[in-house]
Amino acid sequence: MLRRLIICLAVLWGVWAHAQELVVEPQYDNAGTFHDGLAPVQLNGLWGFIDAKGRMVVEPQYERVLSGSEGLRGVKFNEDGINRWAFLDSKGQIIGDPNARGLKRYKGGWAAYKYFDDLWYFIDTKGNRISDMGWEDIGGWEPPFAAVKAGSQWGIAHIGDFGFANPVDDPAFFTEGEAIQSISGISEESFVVQTDRGVKLLQIGKLPYQVAAAVIPIAADNAFHRRIKPMVNGLAPIQMSDGQWAMLHKRTGSLVFKGRFDEIRSMQEGFAAVKLDGLWGYINRQGKMVVPPTYDRAFDFSGGYATVRSGNLRGFLKIEDDLSISEYIPLQFEDVFRFRDGLAPVKFNGKWGFISNGEEARPKLKQSPVKALIPG
């Protein structure tokens, strides 16, 4: 039995050496993706940060960490018996007010803080509040628009001077003839509303001097549906009221690929994961099956790579130069996360380490230019 295990390990390490480089050996209880040169790792229940060479830059001391963006990463810690949240920069230094009760990661130069008054506020990348208005909830944002809740009403606000009459402290509220329970998935000036009757995809109508909500035609029937995923590159996956899946084409309002698949994920980087007869594969924007249904689970492409799972093993697919898809790393890991900055966390024998795809780490993401339009 021991000899077989040694042989299996030797084969596995041979595959690793051939397909990619293992740059940080599996040794951590948990791990997250790299961003701006650092990755979170967990030891003995606490999180710290390592660099690309596996050196511990920030000793484990945080209870939770959020995925990094725009050079900053949210962390949760306990101080004086009080749970607090704050953002860390790439040097491990706290940025802004370290007294939040919750936070949401940066996107387009904005983040959201929940303060001890139980209200959410938008902040810039220096930790300064963008406005004095606080909300009960924030359903997401894509500059310059944000979905916000005040009292029992949901609305769309915008931040900065973009030529609209509804400033951040005075959102454009709306109804669908019934109570809107939540707004989510704001993307490409569209958003998903949840009501008692189901979900509907709306778009932000930019009327003269104001922001309004307008319904995107959905097969000309303006119907409610079971599920709608955020709009990506003009396409939004929809599960209709009869259980069938399709893609909503935003420009025409038509439904494509209707009834062809058991489930559809977002169209990312020209490909969408689709489920057929219990297995997952990938289609391109024309609906052609590029990867036949093979896997028990398949995820979105990001940076040219996607993770897939069969049974208890995970691996990676890659988009090639001719826009075909290859199995870049065979299914061999107990768990994986996506490549970021050329590195990906992988789990083997109960511990996490990192592999490299051989590509150069991406330069630091610069702050969105929308920041320059936000009043100081």
Features:
376 residues, 35 strands, four-stranded antiparallel beta sheet, mainly beta
Task: Outline the structure in words.
This protein is mainly beta. 5% of the residues lie in helices and 49% in strands. The protein contains one helix and 35 strands. It has a four-stranded antiparallel β-sheet with strand order 1-35-34-33, covered by helices on one side. A four-stranded antiparallel β-sheet has the order 2-3-4-5, with no helix packed on it. The protein has a four-stranded antiparallel β-sheet with strand order 6-7-8-9, with no helix packed on it. The longest helix has 18 residues. The N terminus and C terminus are likely disordered.
Q: What count of helical segments does DSSP give?
A: 1
Strand content: over 45%
pLDDT under 50 segments (min length 5)?
1-19, 162-170, 362-376
Number of strands: 35
Mean pLDDT: 82
The span between the termini is: 67 Å
Helix-strand makeup class: mainly beta
Query: What gross morphology would you assign?
Result: flat
Q: Largest beta sheet, briefly?
A: 4 strands, antiparallel
Helix content: under 10%
Radius of gyration: 23 Å
Biggest sheet, spatial arrangement of strands: 1-35-34-33
Question: What's the structural blueprint in terms of helices and strands?
Answer:
Blueprint: H1 2-19, E1 21-28, E2 30-31, E3 39-43, E4 46-50, E5 56-62, E6 64-65, E7 73-79, E8 82-88, E9 94-100, E10 102-107, E11 110-114, E12 120-123, E13 137-142, E14 145-150, E15 153-158, E16 172-173, E17 180-187, E18 190-195, E19 198-205, E20 212-215, E21 227-228, E22 235-239, E23 245-249, E24 254-256, E25 263-264, E26 271-276, E27 279-284, E28 289-295, E29 297-298, E30 305-310, E31 313-319, E32 325-333, E33 335-336, E34 343-348, E35 351-356
Antiparallel strand pairs: 1-35, 2-3, 3-4, 4-5, 6-7, 7-8, 8-9, 10-11, 11-12, 13-14, 14-15, 15-16, 17-18, 18-19, 19-20, 21-22, 22-23, 23-24, 25-26, 26-27, 27-28, 29-30, 30-31, 31-32, 33-34, 34-35
